């Protein structure tokens, strides 16, 4: 099998990428039925995952941004990478559901780690995941992330991040050395 990532490129998003990024994030996190990939949270949350304002803010972020994986000019995956004082933060990770299961997510995560290590000189990457997302947690653990023991509450009542369908949602933090 050919490695499809050899024809891909990565770069940080520009403001005119916001609409495409928004569509990928919503499809990856909130799609239902046939169009849903394995990363959907639709069993846990309804509503939106993000909005164009947040996407724009992340694109304009001074210490990072939204890293994109592209096939030609078409964005197929994205993630937030943010430089913090003692680590990098990895978030809003989304692969177009139509392109999942081809190693694109693994490739983009690897590139985000490379940016944090080589461009920013950081030695650690952290992320948070909804604790109920055991399949996603297992995916991160296979790539070297380990739980830190830190947790944080889900923002119940703030519909910008979704409308919970279940009680008891919270985030767990993971870390990986770079």
From TrEMBL:
Signal peptide: none
InterPro entries registered for this protein in UniProt: Acyl_CoA_acyltransferase (IPR016181), Bact_Acetyltransf (IPR050832), GNAT_dom (IPR000182)
N-acetyltransferase domain mapped to chain residues: 8-178
Keywords linked to the UniProt accession: Acyltransferase, Transferase
GO molecular function, one term: acyltransferase activity, transferring groups other than amino-acyl groups
Keyword hit for Acyltransferase: yes
Organism domain of life: Bacteria
Keyword Cell inner membrane: no
Xref: Gene3D superfamilies: 3.40.630.30
Protein name: N-acetyltransferase domain-containing protein
Origin species: Acidipropionibacterium virtanenii
Higher taxonomy: Bacteria, Bacillati, Actinomycetota, Actinomycetes, Propionibacteriales
